[in-house]
Specification:
The complex is a heterodimer.
Chain A lengths: L1 H7 E2 L2 E2 L1 H29 L3 H8 L2 H34 L5 H9 L6 H12 L6 H4 L10 H11 L1 H14 L3 H8 L4 H12 L1 H16 L3 H6 L10 H11 L2 H24 L1 H5 L2
Antiparallel strand pairs in A: 1-2
Helix pairs in contact in A: 2-15, 3-15, 4-8, 4-9, 4-12, 4-14, 6-8, 9-12, 10-11, 12-15, 14-15
Chain B lengths: L1 H20 L12 H9 L6 E3 L3 H9 L15 E12 L19 E2 L7 H19 L7 H13 L1 E3 L4 H9 L5 E5 H9 L4 E4 L3 E11 L9 H11 L2 H9 L3 E2 L3 H6 L8 E3 L7 H18 L2
Parallel strand pairs in B: 3-4, 3-5, 7-9
Antiparallel strand pairs in B: 1-7, 2-5, 2-6, 2-7, 2-8
Helix pairs in contact in B: 1-9, 2-3, 4-5, 4-11, 5-11
Classes of the chains: A mainly alpha, B alpha/beta.
Chain lengths: ~280, ~300
């Protein structure tokens, strides 16, 4: 004890501060910083014009657009669903409520490849749902729809997880006041409840979107992985890596890395605005 | 490959060796995709013999000095067995698929492994392209490359999924996806053996995938050398070749063995990688130059 206490203040200088910060950065170096740095180094090692050319490949642009579009729709669905689920599960107490909460959270722990083949089994021609639709010429697997379904599954708990705690802690007095002045339930929800959830909704959406854009394990199984047709950005990166085109793979990886950097910066720096109540 | 070796060839050779030399042999074998096996050997996995599904992998082993002897000097140019590429369809052949050209029809859904990551898929591309080229030769000297390219393009339009390997493609197909799958006849016969509700359609012209067996000279010790050499010779013996045929491979030494297997389909115009002047030419010219640059990037 006495040595620690002695170490803490050497001539009025707190040694623990630079030491702990240094240790933190040092530990993060091989674990996070260097892997990220290598993406940028390898992606631009042949010059910025090569990087730009790799980015402008029609399949690369297509893959990025497909990732954005499928992640967008999965986010729209999961935010609306998360809002609804959070509302139901925090307002009503019923038998099986906890089981539902646990089930919604499950996709976080399930390997994404498992999510992929579960969807294949379900929607495939022999699957429970696929059997109903396939005879009518409706096939969702190996289309953009399958990518959205996979994204919905793997990001299912994220928006819900952010929105529900806000619901739980929300003061109900405003809602009650709104009801007493004659507002309908819908008006109360729209004008009173929803605005106070603004921060949670935006954070939930950004988290969901960021996670969906990077999704690989389930997408590779359900999408069909056809360049220019059903290949998302992460699948494109993997395909280019397999082809030995490391620069092309890294060029897209840089875009995704910058993109998630942007999303998490927004989440971090707009915290104050998001938390406004 | 696993079954034919473990159930027939290893025990038969071990019995023979014991009888002749009194030594008991133990085989240690590991089975994986050709590319994976090659990578493992290149990274130092201790192997004396490798049987690969694609000649390019042998070339990789040669390049790094793992295979130093002239492997073509072995019987049948070092090819231990072979199997043609065929089309697998659903039982009863509901879409009436009789040849590669039927796969180009609108509305057909095809499962095809990814030619970038799967050796089997590269064979399949050569099978489709070569088949059309070969057929066009009967009408035009030297064949019609444009027609072959158009066929490949039309078929690729119908591909709904490109799994990473031939085995993964089979699983996807067995889950009920797609109307057809292009794969090794060997794989089709194994599916039938497993009672899968499928039929094998043998194209009029198709390629034979040929499988080289090579000695990993770098890791064979002087003490093991006689055994390894004797085993290599044994692989091309009538006994081993018949065992391969029994396990759905074509023999490379004696066509009478193949004729005797009623499960093999009749191929009017068979061809091999030699039709494209070897993998050295086929890979850059057909897989990269035609498939990647003119079919996939369309």
């Amino acid at each position: 004890m006495s040595t620690v206490a002695a170490m803490r203040h050497v001539r009025g200088f707190d040694v623990a501060r630079p030491l702990s910060i240094g240790t933190l950065v040092f530990l993060m170096l091989p674990l996070v910083f260097l892997p990220l740095a290598s993406i940028f180094i390898f992606g631009t090692s042949n010059g910025l014009d090569k990087f730009w050319a790799a980015l402008m490949q029609p399949e690369a642009i297509f893959a990025l657009k497909l990732s954005m579009a499928t992640s967008f729709w999965a986010t729209v669905f999961n935010v609306i669903f998360g809002l609804f689920a959070a509302y139901v599960l925090s307002r009503y107490n019923f038998w099986g409520r906890n089981a539902l909460i646990v089930t919604i959270s499950l996709p976080t722990a399930i390997p994404t490849a498992v999510a992929g083949f579960a969807l294949l089994l379900l929607w495939g021609p022999y699957g429970t749902l696929g059997r109903l639709f396939t005879p009518h010429g409706f096939q969702i697997m190996f289309t953009a729809g399958a990518i959205i379904l996979a994204n919905i599954f793997v990001t299912f708990p994220l928006a819900f997880g952010v929105i529900k705690p806000v619901f739980d802690t929300m003061s109900r007095s405003l809602e009650e006041a709104s009801a007493t002045i004659g507002a309908t339930r819908w008006q109360t929800f729209w004008h009173v409840t929803l605005p106070s959830l603004r921060g949670a909704i935006v954070s939930g959406a950004l988290l969901t979107f960021a996670r969906a854009v990077g999704e690989f394990g389930s997408t590779i199984l359900v999408s069909g992985n056809l360049a220019g047709r059903t290949q998302t950005a992460p699948l494109y990166i993997f395909a280019k890596f397999n082809e030995g085109q490391i620069e092309a793979a890294n060029a897209i990886a840089i875009v995704l890395a910058l993109f998630s950097f942007l999303i998490f910066s927004v989440l971090f720096f707009a915290r104050d605005w998001l938390d406004v109540d | 490959m696993k079954e034919s070796l473990e159930k027939a060839i290893f025990p038969a050779f071990a019995a023979k060796w014991k009888q002749q030399h009194g030594q008991v042999l133990m085989f240690q074998s590991s089975f994986a995709g050709s590319e994976t096996v090659t990578n493992q050997i290149l990274r130092g996995a201790p192997a004396d013999i490798a049987i690969l599904s694609i000649e390019r992998d042998v070339q990789r082993l040669q390049k790094d000095g793992f295979v130093t002897a002239d492997w073509h000097a072995l019987p049948a140019h070092g090819i231990v067995n072979k199997t043609p590429f065929v089309i697998i369809v659903r039982q009863g052949n509901p879409k009436g698929i009789r040849d590669f050209s039927d796969l180009a029809k609108p509305g057909i859904k095809l499962i095809h492994p990814d030619p970038i990551s799967s050796g089997g898929a590269q064979w399949s591309i050569l099978a489709i392209y070569g088949s059309e080229l070969k057929k066009s030769e009967t009408e035009q000297d030297g064949g019609d490359k444009v027609r072959a390219l158009q066929m490949l393009r039309a078929i690729w339009k119908n591909v709904i999924s490109t799994p990473g390997s031939a085995r993964e493609a089979r699983t996807t197909f067995e889950l009920g996806n797609g109307d057809a799958l292009i794969t090794y006849e060997l794989e089709g016969l194994l599916m039938k053996e497993a009672k899968a509700p499928i039929e094998i359609v043998t194209p009029q012209a198709t390629i034979f995938s040929e499988h080289p067996a090579v000695v990993i000279d770098k890791s064979v010790t002087a003490a093991k050398r006689p055994i390894v050499d004797a085993f290599m010779q044994y692989l091309w013996s009538d006994e081993a070749q018949q065992a391969f045929v029994q396990f759905h491979f074509y023999s490379t030494t004696n066509d009478a063995f193949n004729q005797a297997n009623a499960a093999f389909g009749h191929i009017e115009m068979p061809f091999t990688i030699d039709y494209f002047h070897g993998w050295d030419k086929a890979y850059p010219e057909v897989i990269e130059g035609i498939f990647r640059d003119q079919v996939q990037r369309k």
